[in-house]
Design goal:
The chain is an alpha+beta fold and about 400 residues long. The protein has 3 domains: about 60 residues; about 100 residues, Roll (SH3 type barrels); about 220 residues, Outer membrane phospholipase (ompla), Chain C. Helices cover about 15% and strands about 60% of the residues. The protein contains 3 helices and 21 strands. The strands form 2 sheets. The protein has a 12-stranded antiparallel barrel with strand order 10-11-12-13-14-15-16-17-18-19-20-21. Helix 1 runs antiparallel to helix 2. The longest helix has 29 residues.
Length: about 400
């Protein structure tokens, strides 16, 4: 990298010299005033030395990674977690690479390193003869690359420590969406929708909340009638039993006027598996049992034990757009012909610091609905949303 900086300096020095020579030739032709060549040379030398010092300091204070294939990445180390190293490169932004493909690493600014015994030390790191030398205030350690469990810069360390013992009111993130739609003229219609999601994620557990509602009405030929009215909400909690396995409990509520459903109360729990867990995507598979109490206005009351299975999936499509999806299949334990399905999906695009554009889909399928009602109730909303974090 220093050779590259020197070549840039030489090229700049040549350009300044050519510029000065051109100015001198012009002045010889246009007037008696002269620009001394020595003065121009001194100016070019000052410019060249300033650029050289700037480039040298940029290189000197930057972290450097050398790969097995010879590639060199200069920037700042963000973290090494598991098998991957993440660095913010000067030229390419955030780059993630496999740790076992790194042959040399150097960080002149102190980082936080987790040692094989679980201790965390802070110091600079550099590779010497295949060993990673960790220099702290008090000592110097020599470790094999495989013994470096974790590396975190200052921001990552603060975020990690915040996850260790947070209060119940901390670490909440979420979004709220509000939508209106209407028509006027031969027919007057009004649709109002809301959607709220929130989650609190720590190193060991996850708490999630959701709430969706739609209210739609139409005025035709002087007659006003509701065309849609539904409310859905619930809470879920996952606790990690193992890096890949978690326990899950949930409580859901639902009201749907046009399925004659006064209230559906569901309480259940089971086990889940983290099938995919990367920076961009998460996939959880889960299953268990629940109790379903459904009260209809027909009147009909159902009390059933159910077995369920499903998945939760999230994907970052880019820096500003994310996708979430949830699926559940509930089977009546006492009557195998009775089942229901919940499917939810949402797409969110960030358009400002706290402002998003959201699209959500929600489907509730009941294979044996109340008499005279359809099996499917499909709810879709779109509108502006506000994100929050605490």
């Amino acid at each position: 990298m220093k050779d590259h900086s020197l070549s840039r300096l030489v090229a700049l020095r040549r350009r300044v010299s050519v510029l000065c020579a051109g100015v001198i030739r012009i002045r010889k032709l246009t007037g008696p005033w002269r620009i001394p060549h020595e003065r121009c040379f001194r100016r070019s030398l000052v410019v060249g030395l300033s650029v050289s010092a700037t480039l040298f300091l940029n290189v000197a204070w930057a972290d450097q990674i050398v790969m097995k294939n010879g590639d060199r990445v200069t920037g700042s180390i963000i973290k090494k977690d598991g098998k991957n190293l993440t660095i913010k490169a000067d030229q390419f932004g955030v780059v993630t690479t496999a740790w076992d493909q790194v042959v040399s690493v150097q960080a002149d600014k102190p980082v936080n390193i987790v040692l094989p015994d679980g201790r965390t030390v802070q110091g600079t790191i550099a590779t010497t003869n295949g060993k990673v030398e960790v220099t702290t205030r008090d000592t110097k350690l020599s470790l094999a690359p495989a013994d470096i469990k974790t590396i975190r810069n200052g921001d990552e360390e603060k975020a990690y420590e915040r996850l260790l013992k947070p209060s119940w009111g901390q670490l909440w993130t979420g979004a709220g969406t509000l939508g209106f739609a209407g028509t006027a003229g031969n027919a007057e219609t009004l649709t109002f929708t809301t959607g709220i999601t929130a989650a609190r994620v720590t190193n060991t557990d996850k708490t999630s909340l959701y709430f969706n509602t739609i209210k739609a009405s139409a005025l035709t030929n002087g007659k006003n009638a509701d065309t849609a009215q539904a409310v859905r909400g619930g809470i879920g909690y996952n606790h990690n039993l193992h890096p890949r396995v978690f326990a899950n409990v949930f409580n859901d509520y639902e009201y749907d006027k046009f399925q004659n459903l006064n209230l559906r109360f569901v309480l259940g729990g089971g086990l889940g598996f983290h099938a995919i867990k990367t920076e961009r995507s998460h996939l959880d598979l889960l299953g268990g049992a629940d109790f379903n109490h459904s009260s209809f206005s027909t009147p009909l009351i159902q009390k059933t034990a159910e077995g369920y299975f499903g998945d939760d999936y999230s994907l970052k499509l880019g820096g500003a757009t994310s996708l979430v999806q949830s699926f559940r299949m509930f089977d009546d334990v006492s009557d195998g012909s009775q089942y229901r399905v919940n499917f939810d999906a949402g797409l969110s695009t960030k358009i400002a610091k706290r402002l998003t554009w959201n699209v959500s889909l929600s489907d509730r399928y009941l294979n044996h609905p109340a008499p005279g009602r359809k099996t499917n109730d499909f709810l879709y909303t779109t509108g502006l949303g506000i994100t929050f974090a605490r």
